[in-house]
Structures are given as structure tokens and as C-alpha cells.
Amino acid sequence: MRLRQGNFDEVTVYGEDPLVAAMEWKNQGAQYLHVIDLDGARTGESPNLGLIRRIARETGLPVQTGGGIRSIESIRSRLEAGVERVIIGTRAVNEPEFVIEAIGKFGAEHIVVGLDGHEEYAATAGWEEDSGKTILDLARSFDGMGVRTIIYTDISKDGMLTGPNIIYTEQLVNETGMDIIASGGIGSSFDLERLEEIGVEGAVLGKSLYEGKIDLRAEISKRL
To answer: Which domains does the chain have, with CATH numbers?
Structure first.
């Protein structure tokens, strides 16, 4: 399922079994899967951990997952379930020292910070609360904590297929020392080309795949 601009009241369901979707993307050449537990993002619980475990095990692909990551134990449980990288969002914004602790216990290769914003300000709690902190300031601070990778989502773009926030994404690439993964609004092959041009590490594709706006197999072939 996908949200529109982070709104839980505007949900589009594309299938009943996420594992089926995961296998489809694997069959089209996907090398990495991005899985967000929307229930966890709102409640801080992990009701879909079993499903995430199945996706990691049965696809055999590396998985990065987020949503409701509020404790060291929640990170550990996902890594033990076969997840490769865990995305820390709300708690990273509210308590940056938690990220330092997580990296110390699990290694920077397994920890990703997710920064989701309304314009330049970071949002938390499933995108429903404004932190009052800017994405760029947070990114700069995480750069000094050993974080290697940040996933940046412009909430106003998410689910709209109108293109990502190129300007702010490029600013993050140029002004931090980290790998930036772009998310939100990517709706065409042209969008992917623009992101490549500004030097992002990767791009998260969701609605654009489910609605046939981007041919995953073709885009992967271009980059092999």
C-alpha cells in the first residue's frame, strides 16, 4: 500500500500480500528492497515483523526497513529477522544520541537515518508531527556521528509522481559527507536521470512501479 503526501486517510492498496510484490520486483531485477511498516510508524510497535522476516528469507535479497524503530531491541529483532539495514526516523530526530548507540552496537553498515520533511523541516511520528528542526541541520549533525546513509523524503512529493525535490536533495548531497538516497515523488525515467546527475547514492521507488510509470527491468539494464 502507498500513502499520498504521508496522509493515512489517503491510502491506495495495490495487493493483499507484500511478499508477492517483493517477489515480483526480484523477478524484474531488483537488488535491494525497501520495506516500511506503516503500522509501526504510527504506533511504535512491530506488528509486521513476521512478514518482514518472510520477505527477507524468501526473496534472498537485502532488505532495509523502517517504521516504529524506537529501541535497541527493535533494531536487534529486525536484524535477527534477516534485515540488512534498519532505518531510524522519529527517534533519530528526537534523540540523536540513540543513533550513536545503535551504530556502536550494530555498526554503521546496518543503520540508516530516515529524514522526512514538510519543505525543509523534519517530521516525526509517521509524518504527523513537526519537529521544528531542519533536514539539512540534522543531516550535518548526523555526519559527525558516524552515519553513512540518509534517506531523504519530501512528504509533499510522496505519492504524487510529480518528481522529487531535486534542489533540496542536491543540497544534502553537496553539503554532507554521506550517501543520500532520494525518496518521494519519483515518477519517471527522467526523474531517475536527474537524480543520477546530482550524485545521489540511490532512489526509492514505490507508486511509480505499482502504477507502471517506471519499468524497473529497463532502468536496471541501463545501469549495468
So the answer is: 2-222 (3.20.20.70)
